[in-house]
Amino acid sequence: MAGSTVPSKVQESPEGDDVARRLLGSAAQLAYDPATEVDWDTPLDKDFHGASPEWCSLYGTAYWGELTEAQRKELTRQEAASVASTGIWFEMILQQMVLRDIYMKNPAGAEFQWALTEIAEECRHSIMFARGAQKLGAPHYRPRRAVMELGRAFKTLAFGEAAYAAILVAEEVLDVMQRDWMRDERVVPFVRTINNIHVVEESRHMKFARDETLKRLEGAGWARRQINAFVVAVASYFIVTSMVNPKVYRRAGLDRKRALAAAKANEHHKSMMRSSCSGLMDFLASARLLTKPALAFYKRANLI
Ligand SMILES: [Fe+2]
Ligand SMILES: [Fe+2]
Fold first, then answer.
1. 283 domain residue, yes or no
2. How confident is the model at residue 12 (pLDDT cuts 50, 70, 90)?
3. Which Pfam families does the UniProt record give (predicted)?
4. How far, in Å, from the CA of 134 to the mean position of ligand 2?
5. pLDDT band at residue 276, thresholds of 50, 70 and 90?
6. Is residue 55 part of a domain?
7. From the CA of 62, how far away is ligand 1's center (Å)?
8. Quick count: other Cβ atoms within 10 Å of Cβ 47?
9. What is the CATH number of the domain that holds 132?
10. Which of 3, 65, 75, 230 has the fewest CB neighbours in a 10 Å radius?
11. Any idea which ligand is nearest the CA of 124?
């Protein structure tokens, strides 16, 4: 575990925000160094899955029924690696957004210091995901070019509630899957450790993102709420639809065209996504970010 104490001056800082101060305390008590916590040395045991099979994009389809156990395991390993790669992509976006957000803030304040602590955690996560995907035998998966360019625009321009609500969506969607995978004995042990580390540290980030979203929305007028609700929904759509890269199927030795069609029509997977996002949707509704146009995108992404 990598932890340190919070200097008492930070806690007394007049600019210190309560939530940020508490999160700094939590990070000082419980943080991990994936470089030493994760078992990177033991060779990959192909008897294990990379993710809980129930989360696989093909689980429950006729095609899934035809696959051998070895093919299923290879597919969940590739999908887990793809989710990790999408995680890296989004963590790069959010690190830049948070860094831009604190540019003018007082370095003595708890909010400034918490933000840098969160960035440090994300930085360690991205390296951990990169090594994890590598160990799972995956190539460099990344969202398609147009989505990468949209992400480039988003990380450069998004601010306030649009930035923090999008961060929250990405973190929540990952959180629910990873909670299942970290407890699942069918999942390869080093991936379970990675998920455990991520779940623990992301619970702080989600708390902060929720708090910031509500704070930034205070006093927001109708038009601003409409625009940002829409931007967040579109961002969520691209994040969620980029989780499983279409290349995973061929990599696992499957017929790409058939697998893509089966995944697209997979009602089991859609209902997993919907039920796991119910808490998030409740939050967005309470923040009045579930406007009609936004709702259409969440439905398209099968989040509601
Ligand atoms: Fe993370
Ligand atoms: Fe995070």
1. yes
2. very low
3. AurF
4. 21
5. confident
6. no
7. 34
8. 10
9. 1.10.620.20
10. 65
11. 1
